[in-house]
Amino acid sequence: MHTLEAKNLRKTFVISEAQRRKLDLTERKVTGVDDISFTARSGEIFGLLGPNGAGKTTTMRMLATLIKPDKGEVLYDGISIKEDPVKIKNRFAFLTTDLQLDKKATANDMFEYFAGLYHLPKERYDERKKELFEAFGIGSYAGTKISKLSQGMRQKVSIVISVIHDPDFIIFDEPTNGLDIIASREVREFILRMKEEGKCIILSTHLFDLVEKICDRAAMIVQGSIVVEDTLPNLMNGRSLEDSFYDIYQKYQKQ
Questions:
Q1: Is there a domain that residue 53 lies in?
Q2: 193: closest CA among 235, 241, 134, 118?
Q3: Which CATH number do you get for residue 58?
Q4: Are 5 and 74 in contact (CB under 8 A)?
Q5: In a domain, 204, yes or no
Q6: pLDDT over 60 at 254, yes or no
Q7: Measuring CA to CA, how many Å separate 95 from each of 13, 56, 201?
Q8: What total of structural domains would you count in the chain?
Q9: Helical H runs in 79-231?
Q10: I need a surface site. Which of 83, 97, 226, 249 has the fewest CB within 10 A?
């Protein structure tokens, strides 16, 4: 079984004078994430749920080694990202809405480029391309320039190149953000398929219905800290996830 452990992660940021005035703050530093810990396991989807600015994306970027925590560590199967970041990076995929595709390239071009980065053998290259392009229906526009594609199509190409190397760990930051209902469903089905394959999946979102449909466990983040973590049935307690989250959010806002 694969495990991803976040242990006591903390991250602060220095902000400018203009930002301090805008936010009406006196301190030069703000805390983005404060002492976050959780464990995600293979064969399950672990959700990080919270409002905008709660610290979800900062947490995901620390998991993906894009930014270093001020405190704490991230372990992939017990190996710290501080010890062997190169080896670990080959074992996970990170998808964010910030991923920028070359607009002059095509899906075929992007697949070939990223396959080269991961040194995919020719036989494996053909197998993965067929599998992933069929999963997202990319074949019909594989030769079209990225600039001509819709946001949904671009997002599907982004997912394909993110998981091209068949990683054990999948880190998704708002994977269905801005997608129409058809593209969102295709992305959900693909994530569930990866769960069935035994992948360890961490999903960050502010969409309650997405968490309800696909997550096994979830943690709720408020003001940079996890305030509750449990299975979906326990979190919902017979109600909608939105109602449960709102009650918890109100409680911690008042503290």
A1: yes
A2: 134
A3: 3.40.50.300
A4: yes
A5: no
A6: no
A7: 23, 13, 11
A8: 1
A9: 85-89, 107-117, 122-136, 151-162, 181-196, 208-214
A10: 83
Cα 173 from chain centre: 3
pTM over 0.85: yes
pLDDT tens digits, one per residue of 204-253 = 998 899 999 999 999 999 989 999 999 999 999 899 999 999 888 888 76
**Positions of E strands within the chain:** 3-14, 29-41, 44-49, 71-76, 79-80, 92-95, 169-173, 200-205, 217-222, 225-231
Mean pLDDT of 86-110: 88
160 half-sphere exposure, CB direction, 13 A CA radius: 32
Structure tokens at 26: 């006196």
Q: How far, in Å, CA of 212 to CA of 53, rounded?
A: 21
Contact by Cβ (8 Å): 210, 188 = yes
Residue 4's Cβ-side half-sphere holds a number of Cα atoms within 13 Å equal to 29
Residue 47 lies in a domain: yes
